[in-house]
Amino acid sequence: MRKSLKSISKRKWIVGGLLFFGGAALLTTGFATWVIGTQILSDRDNLNIVVDTAKNESISISAELSDNSIHLREKVSQDSSNPDQIIFTDNTENADFEIKFSKITIECGVEFYQRNYCTYDSQTGVYTPKTFDLSIKFDMSGTLLESLPASQANTLEDLTQNIVVKNQNIKFVNDHLQVDASGNAVTSYQYIDIDTDKITLSESDVTNKWTDASGGFKQLVITDKVIKFKWGNFFSYRDHTDTVVNNGPAAYYNNLSKIKGSSWRTLSNLQKVEDEINAMNAVFTPTDSSKKSALALEISLPEVINA
Fold it and tell me: Which of 78, 85, 227, 296 has the fewest beta carbons closer than 10 A?
């Protein structure tokens, strides 16, 4: 029996190849509106004329990536002396869970810039850029393909929703994490998750970096920022100290084998392990072989986080 189990456990898993974060412009979020409202009273020939002025309150964010892919993989060696180990890999590298923005460009109307990112000296009438920290937030949501040119979108398959594990792909229903680290019940599982949910801009990122752009806009260019991802809570478990840990699929399944014991290591359960991993492979593999799997990453407007 042991020989049969070890034979099954040697099957490697390589999931999806890579996830592609598309193109030069990742996502643009925000709003672009003209706010009409400030009234100026003019007196000419005894005729009162109320004139509305226009304020440019528009803002946009664009992003360019120098590293636009992450690789789902593990480097886990076989330990023949460990009877609890039921899964290992033949990969030479661990997961590559980072992407890098070569440039993030924020462009906004002058009035928006003055109101949100400047202090105003009423005596001198001078607006001075604020030097306290700003924060740009990231979230894996939205639809990637709608934000890209058709020529580029046609080469991608948006798999954003597939980060959530579908019920039919959960074979160990009661053995995945039930309560998270905060004590809340886990209602859904993810294969991968974003680890860097925001970039905090330091004074050096902002001070003296706002420039005048064409059309009466102000522009801030931020360079070389890294966003990190991690394995999702589908592979989280509680260790012997009741601490929630997540070191990837192999650690999860080998821990499950350890706590369940030898009677759990049946052909049926080993098949379930393979089924769960293969299901992850399937959902991150485009149905059209000519396309690359893609995830959407939303960028939120810069927020002031310190007054």
Answer: 78
- Give the CA distances from residue 6 to residues 76, 78, 250, 262, 272, in Å, rounded to whole numbers and listed in that order: 15, 11, 15, 13, 15
Q: What is the C-alpha separation between 129 and 117, in angstroms, rounded?
A: 6
- The DSSP call for residue 302 is P
DSSP 8-state assignment for residue 41 = E
pTM listed for this prediction = 0.74
Alpha-helix residue ranges (DSSP H) falling in 43-191 = 110-117, 150-153
Neighbours of 203 (CB within 10 A): 13
CA atoms within 13 A on the CB side of 108: 21
Integer angstrom CA distances of residue 181 from 33, 244, 248: 42, 6, 17
Q: Report how far residue 102's alpha carbon sits from residue 198's, in angstroms, rounded to the nearest whole number.
A: 16
Strand-strand pairing, 156-158 and 292-294: parallel
**Could you tell me the two tokens for 71?**
């690789």
**What is the per-residue pLDDT across 251-295, written as a single tens digit (0 to 9) for each?**
999 999 999 998 988 888 888 888 898 888 888 888 888 887 777
Strand partners, 220: 106
Contacts of 4 (CB under 8 A, 6+ apart): 267
Q: What is the DSSP letter of 186?
A: P
User: How do 298-299 and 34-44 pair as beta strands?
Assistant: unpaired
Q: Which of 119, 116, 121, 96 is nearest to 106 (CA)?
A: 116
